[in-house]
Amino acid sequence: MSTATAARPRTRIAVIMGLVAFAVYSVAPVWWLVVAATKSQADLYTTNGLWFAEFRLWDNLRGLFTYQDGIFLTWMGNTLLYGVAGTAGMTLVCVACGYGLAMYRFRGRGVMMGAIIGSFLVPGALLTIPSFLLYTDLNLVDTPWAIILPSFFSAFSVYLAKVYAEGAIPPELLEAARIDGAGEYRIFFSVGARLMSTGAATIFLLGFVGSWNSFFGPLVYLRDQHKWPVMLGLYSWLKVKVDNSTDLTGLVVVGSIISLVPMVALMISLQRYWRSGITLGSLR
């Protein structure tokens, strides 16, 4: 048996062990969250964190949805509004920008791409003060628009859309549509946007996850707790323990589980776009 042949089983074992370790590392926090959501406040601190104790999930859910007159549902509704409205606008804007940069040749195109790529290097926190001053002048502070409007613009999503458009849209197809008399807007919505559906679904998912988990922006721009997203609201419940010794950790754990449901549902619902994209790539 050659040395290369003998090394293959060891390599396979090492790869499998690495994948198992990665799976455990990824699943363990979720498992702890699921287990902790079924425990009472006392069992949360006194029992094994990775196994069940007395099943109190329904009581925990009832307490979550009734605490402070059900403000958690308000936070979930706010987060859904910010996520859907902001991400839908961002997807449309970024897909259109990426399509334009990929399909058209115009003066300053290279400079624009350089500016988009260079913006990756600018930390978002660096723009907090000028953004706050701008929103104050526009009377957007403490309004949903302070969260929704900035979500419309994402340099990374524009770059992702450009790269995808270059590989998914044949220029000859656009020329054929122009010969048939179609205008540029009709070509984009009827041809380009459809061929970019897989890339648009990816952009929407990444943007929605980022918006759903947003914390810093709402912390700076929103004052009224009835306008907070769910992540900021759950953080405020954790802070209560520090301020007045009221422990709401159990509610935070259950709320964290509930806040995962929309993202899991979105991931499952968008799978058909990735399957269709893979099939399209294999046919081409």
Layout of helices and strands, plus pairs?
Elements: H1 3-37, H2 41-46, H3 57-66, H4 71-103, H5 109-118, H6 128-137, H7 145-148, H8 155-168, H9 171-179, H10 184-195, H11 197-212, H12 216-221, H13 230-244, H14 249-269, H15 271-283
Helix pairs in contact: 1-14, 3-14, 4-8, 4-11, 4-13, 8-11, 9-10, 11-15, 13-14
Brief digest:
The protein is mainly α. It has helices spanning 3-37, 41-46, 57-66, 71-103, 109-118, 128-137, 145-148, 155-168, 171-179, 184-195, 197-212, 216-221, 230-244, 249-269, 271-283. Mean pLDDT is 87; it is low at 278-284.
Q: Say what the CATH topology of the largest domain is.
A: MetI-like fold
Query: What is the ordering of alpha helices and beta strands?
Result: HHHHHHHHHHHHHHH
The rough form would be described as globular
Number of strands: 0
Specify the number of helices: 15
Which range does the strand content fall in?
under 5%
Text of the CATH class of the largest domain? Mainly Alpha
Q: Sketch the major β-sheet.
A: none
Mean residue pLDDT: 87
User: CATH superfamily assignment of the largest domain?
Assistant: MetI-like
Overall structural domain count: 2
Structural class comes to mainly alpha
Please bin the fraction of helical residues.
over 70%
Query: Low-confidence segments, ≥5 residues, pLDDT <50?
Result: 278-284
CATH architecture descriptor name of the largest domain: Orthogonal Bundle
Compute the gyration radius: what is it? Answer: 24 Å
Termini Cα gap = 42 Å
Describe it.
- This protein is mostly helical and 284 residues long.
- The protein has helices spanning 3-37, 41-46, 57-66, 71-103, 109-118, 128-137, 145-148, 155-168, 171-179, 184-195, 197-212, 216-221, 230-244, 249-269, 271-283.
- Helix 1 (3-37) packs across helix 14, helix 8 (155-168) runs antiparallel to helix 11 and helix 11 runs antiparallel to helix 15.
- The protein is globular and about 70 Å long.
